[in-house]
Specification:
Helices cover about 25% and strands about 25% of the residues. It contains six helices and eleven strands. β4 (about 65-70), α3 and β5 (about 95-100) form a beta-alpha-beta unit. The termini are far apart.
Length: about 220
């Protein structure tokens, strides 16, 4: 997979390092010469240019790009990059960093954003996850609030502990996409049995979250 990351600050470089470690091709683009620290991510391609300009994105090769990550520290830049990636180059997947939570409402498909990542929201979710077994935690929202990724740690008193995945009737538009057990990810199959303390990851829609909460943790849902 070829990924172009707009914004070569600490966030962009960290993302690049992770992606390169997973075997992907990465190009980092930034208009600030001080950000071009090629020795920090030596296996990446680098481009000194303004990612908000069509000519720069053409030079970055967006026509052959699978994913664009708008990771700069400026929300305006991230929105423009996402929009250009979608409208001018038809990039299949765009991921945009939200720096100011007040701007989160703009990061949707109208601006070419497939996935908006808000650091405060992620940190809040991780804090809530650490202290709230049995509570549904929204990790992030896809596109225009049409789908969400949520997590719940199955409590000891859940009626679903010991129940095979294939026999569970989930709410509409809800899919179990992963089980984390003893710090190891498990791709769920119909024959897998849920266990207390499993971390369950779902893709769902906002209107099904309350029903999913009641199904998984009826005692807490009250």
């Amino acid at each position: 997979m070829r990924v172009v990351i707009a914004g070569a600050g600490s966030v962009g470089r960290s993302i690049a390092s992770e992606l390169l470690g997973n075997g992907h091709q990465v190009l980092l683009i930034d208009r600030n010469p001080a950000a071009i620290r090629m020795d920090s991510v030596p296996d990446a391609e680098w481009l000194l240019a303004d990612a908000c300009e069509i000519a720069s994105l053409a030079e970055a090769g967006l026509a052959d790009c699978d994913v664009v990550v708008a990771a700069s520290g400026d929300d305006k830049v991230n929105l423009v990059v996402s929009l250009l990636a979608k409208t001018e180059y038809g990039v299949p997947r765009t991921v945009a960093r939200v720096n100011n939570p007040k701007n989160e409402w703009m990061f949707d498909e109208a601006w070419g954003v497939d996935v908006a990542v808000s650091t405060p929201r992620l940190i809040t979710a991780l804090v809530e996850e650490a202290v709230s077994v049995g509570d549904l935690v929204r990790i992030f929202t896809f596109q225009q609030g049409q789908a969400t990724m949520v997590e719940l740690t199955l409590p000891d008193d859940s009626a679903l502990a010991g129940v095979p995945v294939g026999t569970i009737e989930l709410p509409s538009d809800t899919v179990l996409v992963g089980i984390i057990r003893n710090d190891r990810p498990i791709p769920p199959s119909r024959d897998d049995t849920l266990e207390a303390a499993d971390e369950l990851m779902f893709i769902t829609v906002p209107e099904s979250e309350a029903e999913l909460q009641r199904l998984l943790s009826p005692v807490r849902a009250g």
